[in-house]
Amino acid sequence: MRIGLYPGTFDPLTLGHLDIIKRAAALVDRLVIGVAINRDKKPFFTLEERVAMIETECAGLSAKTGIEIVVHPFENLLIDCARDVGAGLIIRGLRAVADFEYEYQMVGMNRALDSSVETVFLMAEARHQAIASKLVKEIARLGGDVTKFVTPAVREALLARFA
């Protein structure tokens, strides 16, 4: 069984994230969405809210494709999380060259820690490549329309939080 791990903070889940999830689901038999517990980032949504958003938005995709999609919070090293869930593949989304520089370093460190786990980079469709959770939150905070960047349910969660 090919198990892939797509890690991130998903604060909030965007259409770019969902595009990567769809692409990743085509590569594996089981996709684990690793929701990072990173206290340094001070997430806007709680862990429970982020997990619920992902579960809700991925339920239809899982039913449609038959691919098992599991949400797994983690606070340890990414490579240890991959081992914990049995993933032989880490899936990372790339938006720009700046992402690649960081990811390149991360791959090198992960390979040094466990060379049996591969990393695959996926790019979202062009219309979703510029979407960043940080910018989505800023747009919502300032009263802008985030409809093009998130699902209706995530949009409502953002609006409720900033109301």
Quick overview of this protein structure:
With 163 residues, this protein is α/β, with parallel strands linked by helices. It is built from 6 helices and 5 strands; from the N terminus they run E-H-E-H-E-H-E-H-E-H-H.
Show the helix and strand layout.
Layout lengths: L2 E6 L6 H11 L4 E7 L10 H19 L2 E7 L3 H8 L3 E6 L2 H17 L4 E6 L9 H9 L10 H11 L1
Radius of gyration (CA) equals 15 Å
Cα-to-Cα separation, first versus last residue: 45 Å
Helix content: 40-55%
**Which fold does the CATH topology refer to?**
Rossmann fold
Query: SSE order, as H and E?
Result: EHEHEHEHEHH
Give the beta-strand count: 5
- Determine the mean pLDDT: 94
Strand content: 15-25%
**Weakly predicted, low-confidence segments:** none
Summing up helix and strand content along with how strands pair, one would put the structural category as alpha/beta
- Give the name of the CATH architecture: 3-Layer(aba) Sandwich
Name the CATH superfamily classification: HUPs
Count of distinct structural domains: 1
> Class in CATH?
Alpha Beta
Supply the number of helical segments.
6
Shape: globular
